[in-house]
Amino acid sequence: MNSLDSFARKKLKPLIEQGLKRDILVTERLQTGQVIRDGQQLISFCCNDYLNFTHHPKVCQAAKNAIDQYGVGSGASRLITGNHPLIRALEQRLAKIKDSEDACIFSSGYMTNIGIIPTLIGAQDIIFMDELSHACLRAGSSLTGATVVTYRHNDMDHLCELLNQLRKNHQNALIITDGVFSMDGDLAPLDQLAVLARTNDCWLMSDDAHGLGVIGNGKGSRYMFDPLPDIPLQMGTLSKAIGSFGGYICASKPVIELIKTRARSLIYTTALPPASVAAALAALDIIENDHDYCRRPLENAKTFAQLLGLPEPHSPIVPIIIGDSERTMKFAAILAAQGFLVTGIRPPTVAKGTARLRFTFSARHQQDNIIALTAALKQHGIV
Ligand SMILES: *Cc1c(COP(=O)(O)O)cnc(C)c1O
Q: What's the CATH architecture for 57-289?
């Protein structure tokens, strides 16, 4: 065996033993919100396609029209071929929705975070991050060379302590949090974070990947608070509720100008295809005009939680913590055999000992589907 293959096998061995090897299974997603895997039809409770826009006729038609008019690819980085008019329109639309001066589109949420954080923060600075923040916020932070400290999840006393201890030793400081936590479904206390940021001269950045489209009248997690908290850096993705692909940051004009000039994951990568941008614009049209539709995923999550006696969810994400990875995957397999696609989430995506079934709800789940799912969970002793 060559040394590369034996390296890979050696690295995999303990992961296989701990039930942590991952397999990406061929799965076809259907228009109905169902999926086909191994010839079996399943109802998916694990997509981030909360509003089912990946298959919405208006959204699909917008993408088709863009292909007919502009082709499938974008040719190069926007800094080389120039800005597509649809990209500029999407930036202006997002800025308007998020009440910020301007916005910048990236080719994914991950690329947004690994681009903007090192643009704004350097080695002499400090980042305070919620311990449950998404992996790409950690990846972006690790590119800065700054001191990165994590505070206990949503624990403002702990953050306060760290600010008192460490803020003064650094030039600039950034507080980073998910708006909706992707594996737990709870919200960050953005109101308190905004106050702490202001009083400690820190910049606040929220990652609203799971908020846009589904909470706060479709405008995201910041809009769950009254008065609106001041969040100068509002980041998110176009690949979840929006149903398309891409990422964005909404901020003031000078900040966006700096990002467009310096963010490496914007400058050195190809722009989004026009069809993805057109689809996102069509999805935002619906989000802005049909608030009842946008509320459905959260209502379905609430129905699910109520049927199981779980605390009321604040987002369409509801976890059931199992603990052990192998047991979690066994439960996921049992649910699949019953016709429900629910993904088991294991370390390192979540902390050791907190492996879980993570349920996400969409606008198209019917009450019957949810009742059947909860019945299966009870029948097999999962809850
Ligand atoms: C999914 C996700 C991202 C990454 O977005 P992509 O567009 O899929 O790259 C970033 N942050 C959070 C909190 C997410 O859940």
A: 3-Layer(aba) Sandwich (3.40)
